[in-house]
Design goal:
Length: 249
């Protein structure tokens, strides 16, 4: 009887050992499967590349998200070039300060433009009355030149009649003034023909056909003063004024 009990006990121990061995093996397999699945999911998310976009779209659609979870504002850390890492609140404050600084610069720039435009308006207004009172072309040329040089520091102001036999002027008329205006640089020969010397940059325009082929030309010593993208407010106003006055002289 005792031999039977001993054999039974030994058999039971063997069964428990086999069960434990199987359970341990299964557990390892399950852990391996879970690990592989996690790696696969992360790989798939990285390959698809849409997880960050989904988060971005969600936050844009739910701007009150951080109101519901304010602790995230402080808990989240963002890289900072000078301070290492900062909270989302600090980063937002920094961006707002930068935006305020940008707006202040824009306002300052707009105020400068408005001030310059006011200066142009007042100058043109005063010059218009003086030019309208001119009795001849010589007086008009003198007032126009003195006014523009004195107010804006231009080096040359000229009204030039183009004759077909003058090939250099005719070439400027056809090519430089094809669109009615020209702002920018000239070649050395063009500068010498128009102004008698080299200049930095120029503003050129045609007057109306009633005045024949006449070029209204202004030159500056600064190479970048006149450029193709500049505003033509001053020049266009003076052009219309001259178109009105010259036929009467």
């Amino acid at each position: 009887m005792s031999e039977i009990n001993s054999e039974a006990a030994a058999a039971k121990d063997n069964i428990n050992m086999d069960v434990n061995t199987v359970s341990s093996a299964n557990a390892k397999d399950i852990n391996a499967i879970g690990h592989d699945l996690g790696v696969e999911m992360r790989t798939n998310m990285q390959e698809l590349g849409f997880d960050e976009l989904l988060i971005r779209e969600y936050l844009l659609d739910n701007p009150d998200f951080f109101n519901r979870y304010p602790e995230l504002l402080v808990a989240m850390r963002l890289p900072h070039a000078e301070r290492g890492a900062v909270s989302l609140v600090e980063r937002r404050q920094e961006l707002l300060r930068q935006r305020v600084s940008e707006l202040e610069e824009e306002i300052t720039s707009l105020m400068k433009i408005a001030s310059y435009n006011e200066r142009i308006f007042n100058f043109n207004n005063d010059l218009s009355f003086k030019l309208l009172a001119c009795k001849d072309l010589g007086e008009l040329r003198q007032l126009l030149s003195e006014g523009l040089k004195g107010e804006f520091g231009f080096s040359h102001v000229r009204l030039i009649t183009v004759h077909d036999i003058d090939s250099e002027l005719a070439n400027i008329w056809r090519h430089r003034l094809q669109g009615g205006y020209y702002f920018g640089r000239l070649t050395q020969s063009e500068s010498l023909r128009l102004f008698g010397s080299e200049v930095g940059s120029v503003a050129l325009t045609k007057l109306s056909d009633e005045n024949g082929q006449v070029i209204f030309a202004i030159a500056s010593k600064e190479p970048t003063h006149f450029h193709p993208d500049m505003d033509s407010l001053l020049f266009s106003q003076l052009r219309h004024l001259l178109d009105h006055i010259l036929p009467q002289l």
